[in-house]
Amino acid sequence: MFTIVLHLLCVTLCLQLQQGLSGPQCLEHPPNLNGTSGAGSVIKVGGLKAYVTGPPRSKVAIILASDVFGYEAPNLRKIADKVASTAGFHVVVPDFFYGEPYNPNNTQRNMTVWLKDHGTDKGFEDAKRVIASLRNKGVSRIGAAGFCWGGKVVSELAKGYYTKAAVLLHPSRVTLDDIKAVKTPISILVAQFDNGTPPALMKQFQEVLTTNKVDNFVKIFPGVSHGWAVRYAEDNATAVKSANEAHQDMLNWFTKYVQKR
Ligand SMILES: *[C@@H]1O[C@H](CO)[C@@H](O)[C@H](O)[C@H]1NC(C)=O
Ligand SMILES: *[C@@H]1O[C@H](CO)[C@@H](O)[C@H](O)[C@H]1NC(C)=O
Ligand SMILES: *[C@@H]1O[C@H](CO)[C@@H](O)[C@H](O)[C@H]1NC(C)=O
Ligand SMILES: *[C@@H]1O[C@H](CO)[C@@H](O)[C@H](O)[C@H]1NC(C)=O
Q1: Would you write out the chain's pLDDT as a tens digit for each of its 261 residues?
Q2: Which of 182, 194, 232, 253 has its CB 3.0 to 4.6 Å from that of 187, i.e. a possible disulfide?
Q3: How many angstroms does the Cα of residue 106 sit away from the middle of ligand 3?
Q4: 145 touches 59 (CB < 8 A)
């Protein structure tokens, strides 16, 4: 009985997400949002609430754009803390959803409805306000990384000269046309098992970037599924190892292109 219910739930999600995010994989392993984790604090940046961590007066900053579960996700905050403590970046994780992360339990606010209020276009506009605010405070070099929903936001940033470098981790809805317009050095990290952004599409992304002479690093992580870099289970050593590897690749990209050498 339970299995049937789960199966129905999955089918429903598949239908809901066909036009939205990349598939039910986007919603696997939802985080426990209690807003209490992390070594940093929550302040306002560019009019948005944001989790900030790392040296506040650093001239180099990284923006992390969340998946649909938002800026309170404990794993995301841990990643932010890691980026801050390892490389001395000031890290900003904005609340792009204004206090309303996607809640799979809320059937009234299903993905279709929720995305109408929380589209990636709006996220892009908000990200630009966060960047402007950081620049006003004297930050001179900025990088941005996006997970799933946030990957699309960061791909929009990468089309302009908003940041020095971009990292997309299992991005959703990023198209070949998006990638054709990218100007910023970009790293794209994807799972072997990703219905929305499969390895074959990655190969095309890489070809286009190389043809356009955009510095790029594209990597397919074996044995993992969409979402692995942020929604990994803490008690699964294999999953943690692969997620850590993705975080390290992200850090390497930021160290190379954002950190003042
Ligand atoms: C989502 O919710 C709206 C309003 O509650 C409803 O009209 C729509 O059919 C739902 N969509 C799906 C795919 O369930
Ligand atoms: C919040 O969640 C984190 C990670 O799941 C957990 O370690 C912590 O104990 C939780 N805090 C509260 C107050 O529930
Ligand atoms: C959704 O429901 C499950 C099962 O009742 C619960 O464990 C989980 O915390 C709920 N999630 C949210 C975001 O409310
Ligand atoms: C641990 O994570 C790996 C990689 O995501 C996955 O293939 C495996 O099924 C997971 N193991 C368990 C027990 O969930």
Answers
A1: 333 333 333 333 333 343 345 456 777 788 888 767 789 999 999 999 999 999 999 999 999 999 999 999 999 999 999 999 998 999 999 999 999 999 999 999 999 999 999 999 999 999 999 999 999 999 999 999 999 999 999 999 999 999 999 999 999 999 999 999 999 999 999 999 998 899 999 999 999 999 999 999 999 999 999 999 999 999 999 999 999 999 999 999 999 999 965
A2: 253
A3: 9
A4: no
Domains and CATH numbers, the chain: 41-259 (3.40.50.1820)
The closest of 33, 196, 29, 13 to 111, measured between CA atoms, is 13
Cα Rg, the chain, nearest whole Å? 17
Q: In angstroms, how far is the first alpha carbon of the chain from the final one? A: 59
Q: Among residues 90, 92, 110, which one has the least CA distance to residue 102?
A: 110
Instruction: Find the residues whose C-beta lies inside 6 A of ligand 2.
Output: 32, 34, 36-37, 74
Is the Cβ–Cβ distance between 70 and 95 less than 8 Å? yes
Report which bound ligand comes closest to the CA of 30. 3
Taking the model in full, what pTM does it have?
Answer: 0.89
CA of 192 to the centre of ligand 3 (A): 28
Q: Are residues 145 and 250 in contact, defined by beta-carbon separation less than 8 angstroms? A: yes
